[in-house]
Design a protein that fits this description.
By secondary structure, the protein is an alpha+beta fold. It has 5 helices and 12 strands. A hairpin with an 8-residue loop joins β10 and β11. It is elongated.
């Protein structure tokens, strides 16, 4: 009887040891799989970008409107071009710099991602103060293109966008006794250092009609027309 108890004791002891070893191996395996899921990704910062912080997209969306310290959930920071070990997934890159738009930039890291170029657009204040001298040329292009009807319209002050290579403005027609007023939007793009009309005047711009124009440009001109 005592021999049976000893045998059971040794069996239970062996079972516990084996269970602990298996649990430890499982933890090691989980850690190893997690470790191997990370990859080195190089973030190339533009000359105007002083630093970046990388956040998990889902976590950042939750923290965006909270008072929680976002630095606790970031996945890496860089003050110059360099690499960050990061898992595949969706992230935000939040840049900083004197002349750039500091809005979060959405990126996706997959198993083949090796390099991410971080080249934020210029800030609206930088664009308005450094590109406004080009409006005379732009207005001349619009006037020359629509010289048969432009006398009925006034060209409003527009907006420079992205790197100062996109411009949106509106053409306003004063109301008359016979008809009401009309406001048309127009989009220009600077290509090879020359401004050209990228989209002729329209009351409303639709994505499907202008697939070669970035959606945020179309959003900007529509807001300008309807403000």
């Amino acid at each position: 009887m005592n021999n049976n108890k000893v045998a059971i004791y040794h069996f239970l002891k062996l079972f516990i040891i084996i269970s602990l070893v298996l649990a430890a191996l499982s933890l090691v395996l989980i850690f190893l799989v997690d470790f191997l899921s990370y990859r080195e990704v190089k973030f190339a910062l533009s000359s105007e970008t002083k630093s970046i912080t990388v956040y998990n997209k889902e976590e950042y969306d939750e923290l965006r409107n909270s008072t929680t310290d976002k630095s606790k959930s970031n996945h890496g920071e860089l003050s110059a071009t360099g690499s960050i070990r990061i898992k595949p997934g969706d992230y935000y890159v939040v840049p900083s710099g004197d002349n750039i738009d500091r809005s979060a930039i959405s990126i996706q890291i997959n198993d083949n991602t090796e390099n991410i170029d971080v080249n934020p657009y210029f800030s609206s204040s930088y664009l308005s103060s450094n590109f406004s001298n080009q409006t005379t040329v732009i207005n001349h292009i619009i006037t020359d293109r629509y010289k048969n009807i432009i006398s009925n319209y006034s060209i409003d002050n527009g907006l420079f966008l992205h790197y100062g290579d996109w411009y949106v403005t509106s053409l306003y027609n004063e109301p008359t006794v016979e008809s009401g007023s009309d406001t048309y939007g127009i989009i220009l793009h600077k290509v090879n250092d020359k401004w050209q009309i990228a989209a002729t005047p329209e009351l409303v711009f639709r994505y499907d009609d202008h697939k070669d124009i970035p959606k945020d440009i179309i959003n900007s001109v529509n807001r300008l027309v309807n403000q």
